Amino acid sequence: MKVQPVTLSGSLVHLEPLQPEHHDGLVAAAQDGELWQLWYTSVPEPSGMAAEIERRLHFQETGQMVPFTARRLKDDRIIGMTSLMNIDQALPRVEIGSTWNAASSHGSGTNAESKLLLLTHAFEELGCPAVELRTHWLNAQSRAAIERLGARLDGILRSHTRAKDGTLRDTCVYSIVASEWPAVRSGLEFRLNRHQQQT
């Protein structure tokens, strides 16, 4: 099955195909915590949001990316972006990446549910044999979140790319393979159920 734009909905968050009209909501989400100031991430500054939307939509046109806008259901507020990227249409195989979320949404369960929606789509609808996740070696928060999913570290690409401040980035490459997916799904569902019981 070809990887193409799709809408994915859960109980906390709605992932919809990225559109230019999401610009203002995405700017407000990035300003929530001034996320672009974190040197180890690639969250666009407000002045660069239009260009980032255009960049992601270009990659969608070439079949390399399916970008999403994340919308929190309880208040219909846009809280960030994520994508299926580095798509190998032949396998198919995808990476879940280029993800960022407004600071006020951290710990709310929306990111975990977004991952559950994307992984379910990748494994159960697209038939991916594996899904990849990558992050900066020094981004301890992101690495911990990926490891909580149940993803395994495949390796570290040393001096792999340049961060936005010009420093060389070591990239941690994680993956989940299809045989691991049922356990990963159960873990995510348990976390989300427990979170909802506590709120």
TrEMBL record:
Keyword terms, alphabetized: Transferase
A Pfam family of this chain: Acetyltransf_3
Gene3D superfamilies for the chain: 3.40.630.30
Ranges for domain N-acetyltransferase: 14-152
An annotated Gene Ontology molecular function: acyltransferase activity, transferring groups other than amino-acyl groups
InterPro entries tied to this protein: Acyl_CoA_acyltransferase, GNAT_dom
Keyword Transmembrane helix tagged: no
Name recorded for this polypeptide: N-acetyltransferase
Organism this protein belongs to: Deinococcus radiophilus
